[in-house]
Amino acid sequence: MYLKYLVILLVLILFLSAGIFIGVKIGGKIVEKESNININATVKEILPAAEYASLVYQYTSVITHSEAVELFGVGIPLTGKKAIYTIDGAIKLGFNCEDIKIDISYGNIILHMPKIKILSHEIYPETFSLYDETTSLFNRYTLKDANSIQLANKSEMELKVRQNRGLYVQAKTSAEEQFRKLLESVPGIKDKYRIVFEWD
């Protein structure tokens, strides 16, 4: 008689223990998922919402230009001209923050960063200075020439920047430093999470 009640009691205890175990597991996963969602939302709120310029490359170009009117590939006498100019400009390197993807994994906040690209390129026409100019009677420099020279130099500078790997490394390093400071200033993040950057 007592044995029967003892067996029933043991079965009930086993079911109760299993229920508690499953509940803890499911509850823990829900809490962890909600926590990840909250952290994800918090990170998105902190980061800039638009384009972010992580590096501004300022330069002064020295432009040497020369040309002559040609006929059948041969320069015509008294049509040659040459000049040396300087002009200042600034190229901004960065990315669009909307393209950042965020993962929370094993105590890490992983920011999947987009490629660094040229966001803008400004040249300052007011700094366009002539240092030396030689013209001929039949071929002088015009405003149209000055504009063409500036545009050609602008394209050349963008190409140089794209080929300069060091500038892209600096842009990434600067973005990581700024974003890490922003995120670690939020209570609870620095103590519980490590900030990890992964670049495309």
Question: What labels would you give this structure?
Answer:
single chain; alpha+beta; three-stranded antiparallel sheet; 4 helices; 8 strands; 44% helix; 36% strand
How would you portray this structure in words?
The chain is an alpha+beta fold and 200 residues long. Helices cover 44% and strands 36% of the residues. The chain contains four helices and eight strands, in the order αβββββββαααβ. The strands form three sheets. The protein has a three-stranded antiparallel beta sheet. A three-stranded mixed beta sheet has the order 5-6-8. The radius of gyration is 32 Å and the shape is rod-shaped. It starts with a helix and ends with a strand. About 7% of the residues have low confidence.
Topology:
Blueprint: H1 2-46, E1 51-67, E2 70-71, E3 74-75, E4 81-96, E5 101-105, E6 108-113, E7 117-134, H2 143-162, H3 165-184, H4 189-192, E8 194-199
Parallel strand pairs: 6-8
Antiparallel strand pairs: 1-4, 2-3, 4-7, 5-6
Our count of helices gives 4
- How many beta-strand runs? 8
Query: What is the oligomeric state here?
Result: single chain
Average residue-wise pLDDT: 81
Question: Can you list the strand order of the major beta sheet?
Answer: 1-4-7
- Helical residues, percent: 40-55%
